[in-house]
Amino acid sequence: MSRDDILAAALVLLGEGAGQGLTMRALAARLGVTPMSLYRHVGDQAGLLRALADQVYVQALDEPVGLAGERAQIRALLTRYHQAVGRYPQLTLAIFATPQAFAGVTRQITARLTALLARITDSPLLWRDILVDHAHGSGLALAAGQAQPAQIEDMALQYQQALDRLLDAVCGSTAGSPRG
């Protein structure tokens, strides 16, 4: 049993149980091992969620090739993060319920977003929270529409349009006035 096997089974359990089925005991039973063997690979429940988040959200940190400017980089980062939230909504909800799981890649995403925003606004923390909350809300709503591909495409487009409006506000409002 590898760490990748554990994480793959954990993602399946998260999806099957609408977030409620992922326990160390259930995961061990799924893998045919003892719960103690899982603890050696991923630590406790929060460690498991951190490892899952690192695996799922790492693509959001991919450096955009050829994107100039903070706005374009913020848009790319948030678009990739939004897509991951939409694909794995139960993981996002599990992290909300387990604050100790907020570490690793999720912290790196937040730190990168904050740093990019600090270059274009005097209120980077405020805008970070607004933009991340928007990505979460829209991503979770996107997941709710999984049965209808046309609706998912429309919702993803609406997210991009709303994100562009928010980024316009970051770059042009009093609270988001660019630094000179």
What is this structure's SSE topology?
Blueprint: H1 3-16, H2 24-31, H3 35-42, H4 45-57, H5 70-87, H6 89-97, H7 105-118, H8 124-144, H9 149-172
Helix pairs in contact: 1-2, 2-3, 4-6, 5-6, 5-7, 5-8, 5-9, 7-8, 8-9
| Annotation, overall tally of beta strands | 0
Q: State the shape.
A: globular
pLDDT averaged residue by residue: 86
Low-confidence stretches: 174-180
| Strand fraction | under 5%
Structural class estimated from helices and strands: mainly alpha
Major sheet attributes? none
What is the CA–CA distance across the termini?
54 Å
Rg of Cα set: 18 Å
Helix content: over 70%
Alpha plus pi helix count: 9
Order of helices and strands: HHHHHHHHH
Give structural attributes.
disordered C terminus, mainly alpha
Can you describe this structure in just a few lines?
The chain has 180 residues and is mostly helical. It has helices spanning 3-16, 24-31, 35-42, 45-57, 70-87, 89-97, 105-118, 124-144, 149-172.
In words, what does this structure look like?
This protein is mainly alpha-helical and 180 residues long. 72% of the residues lie in helices and 0% in strands.
